[in-house]
Amino acid sequence: MIELAPSILSADFSRLGEEVRAAGEGGGTVIHVDIMDGHFVPNLTIGPPVVKSLRRATRLPLDCHLMIEHPDEFIPVFADAGADWISVHQEVCRHLNRTLHHIKDHGCLAGVVINPATPVETLAEVLDVVDYVLVMSVNPGFGAQPFIPSTLHKMRRLAEIRSQRGLNYRIEVDGGVALETVADVVRAGAEILVAGNAVFGNGDPSKNAAALLKAATEAALQRV
Ligand code: DX5
Ligand code: ZN
């Protein structure tokens, strides 16, 4: 099943509740929340208080993408604030298996994220632990960057490994997903589509989300 996860990074932060509502009306079923620490990525965004406010503003699951060093220290805080899904970057986790279990122990779905330069093979030993794998299709840190096509083979590979090993993680993609690129990522196997600029950048977020989801669903039909 294809799901759209609007990323609030490109939303108007002074009207977050309304923006999230509009994205949901357009068919978004997961709200993607980008947490950046200014160390792992060269940008700073939001923290637990905003997640707590979002929790009151929507019933949709909150997908917290932690682009931070030392994520273990913050997992309990984000879980308490209302995160439903928490993902951590492979590149910062020295004890990835432990961190993923830590997320699950706090009642959240656990995801692992790989940067464009990180191979899928680095995840071999945790694919049976995770609920989802997030493939970055831009270098994390900013919205509205161009999609990196060489990341597509990683979505295909993850779908292949999943069927070979009989696993059931979901495949999420993040970065540069827009009307021009959405069919490619869906055909490659992505199922949860994060989109920031394409939803909130220009015009009506509800209409933008609906158009993107329609294009994605059409591409998924071609896949089978
Ligand atoms: C980038 C973030 C993304 C970002 C995607 O570091 O992880 O979630 O919001 O934005 P777009 O869809 O504009 O590329
Ligand atoms: Zn993200």
Automatic annotation (TrEMBL):
Q: Which InterPro entries match?
A: Aldolase_TIM, Ribul_P_3_epim, Ribul_P_3_epim-like, RibuloseP-bd_barrel
Xref: Pfam families: Ribul_P_3_epim (PF00834)
Molecular function terms from GO: D-ribulose-phosphate 3-epimerase activity; metal ion binding
Keyword annotations of the record: Carbohydrate metabolism, Cobalt, Isomerase, Manganese, Metal-binding, Zinc
**According to the UniProt entry, what is the EC number of this protein?**
5.1.3.1
Cofactor field: Mn(2+); Fe(2+); Co(2+); a divalent metal cation
Q: Could you tell me the Gene Ontology terms of the biological process aspect for this record?
A: pentose catabolic process; pentose-phosphate shunt
Q: What class of enzyme is it?
A: isomerase
Coiled-coil regions listed: none
Q: Which PROSITE patterns match?
A: RIBUL_P_3_EPIMER_1
Q: Which residues bind a divalent metal cation?
A: H32, D34, H65, D174
Record-annotated active site:
D34 (proton acceptor), D174 (proton donor)
Statement: the UniProt record of this protein carries the keyword Metal-binding: yes
What the record notes about the co-factor is: Binds 1 divalent metal cation per subunit.
Function recorded in the entry: Catalyzes the reversible epimerization of D-ribulose 5-phosphate to D-xylulose 5-phosphate.
PANTHER family to which the protein is assigned, alphabetical: RIBULOSE-5-PHOSPHATE-3-EPIMERASE
What family classification does the UniProt entry report for this protein?
A: Belongs to the ribulose-phosphate 3-epimerase family.
User: What name does UniProt use for this protein?
Assistant: Ribulose-phosphate 3-epimerase
UniProt source species: Candidatus Sulfotelmatobacter kueseliae
